[in-house]
User: Which sequence fits this backbone?
């Protein structure tokens, strides 16, 4: 009774959007994973044994005992410190011949913030977006908050099926609808586990070019390949500035650091920085030394 009264007390004050919010399925999943007798594959949790505790401790000590200590603990610029952004870009340049510069990259509080910022800058109520089926729950939750119409594309063992994307685009085109973007997880898909083949990456970019479609490439797992050849990310294959690429330190370093990045067209990054500036979460400064 007390609980119900407590709930009613605030209901009338909550915004319409907040009233529609439900406990995220991810959080519910994570709660289950925290039970000691459960080994869960659902939450994408890295093995804690892989966290480089000693390296992180030594780096923190080095920074806090050095001349950069005050700067490291101070507010930072919204887009992240240039040294870290440059170090991330350099890796993409070296590995994939990526050509962009500092204006093409933004540091975020986890990829989850990147997904939310994309929702903020692109999705209005009834905007059309395209996702794979099945898709990553965290992206679905982030985008759903902005009330889009979601279209889905089935996958098989080689990932998203380009012919079905083309059919969908034709159908939307006929109806006069312009989808805001396609969201895809091309490497070791969560939850499907499949990887988009090189041939399909090229086919996907061709279709996107034909229909002037933006692609959001969410790639938290690309660096975790244990066998076979690494495949180039869509952002490196893209010739006409239509891929927004999300990368994160969560699976290769530690998710608790909440450190990730978005690489994309300058105009999109600029808008995301403006959106991030307005978010409470921007009161963070990823100021420790670049660890890449
Ligand atoms: C596909 C996908 N994108 C993004 C994330 C979240 O990454 P972050 O910890 O950087 O928010 C995950 C985590 O499981 C994921 O599986």
Assistant:
């Amino acid at each position: 009774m007390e609980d119900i009264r407590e709930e009613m007390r605030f209901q009338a004050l909550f915004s319409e959007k907040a009233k529609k919010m439900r406990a995220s399925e991810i959080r519910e999943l994570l709660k289950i994973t925290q039970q000691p007798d459960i080994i869960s594959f659902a939450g994408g949790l890295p093995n804690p044994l892989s966290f480089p505790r000693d390296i992180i401790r030594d780096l923190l000590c080095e920074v806090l005992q050095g001349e950069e200590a005050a700067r490291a603990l101070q507010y930072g610029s919204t887009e992240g410190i240039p040294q870290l952004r440059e170090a991330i870009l350099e890796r993409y340049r070296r590995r994939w011949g990526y050509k962009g510069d500092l204006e093409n990259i933004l540091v975020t509080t986890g990829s989850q913030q990147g997904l939310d910022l994309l929702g903020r800058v692109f999705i209005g109520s009834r905007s059309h977006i395209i996702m794979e089926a099945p898709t990553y729950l965290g992206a679905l939750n982030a985008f759903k908050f902005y009330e889009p119409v979601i279209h889905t594309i089935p996958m098989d063992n080689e990932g998203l099926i380009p012919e079905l994307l083309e059919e969908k685009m034709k159908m939307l085109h006929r109806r006069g609808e312009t989808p805001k973007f396609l969201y895809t997880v091309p490497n070791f898909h969560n939850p499907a586990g499949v990887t988009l083949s090189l041939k399909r990456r090229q086919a996907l970019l061709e279709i996107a070019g034909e229909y002037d479609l933006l692609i959001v490439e969410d790639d938290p797992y690309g660096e975790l390949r244990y066998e076979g050849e690494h495949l180039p990310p869509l952002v490196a294959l893209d010739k006409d500035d239509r891929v927004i690429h999300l990368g994160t330190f969560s699976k290769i370093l530690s998710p608790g650091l909440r450190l990730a990045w978005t690489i994309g067209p300058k105009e999109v990054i600029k808008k995301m920085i403006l959106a991030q500036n307005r978010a409470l979460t921007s009161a963070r400064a990823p100021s420790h030394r670049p660890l890449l």
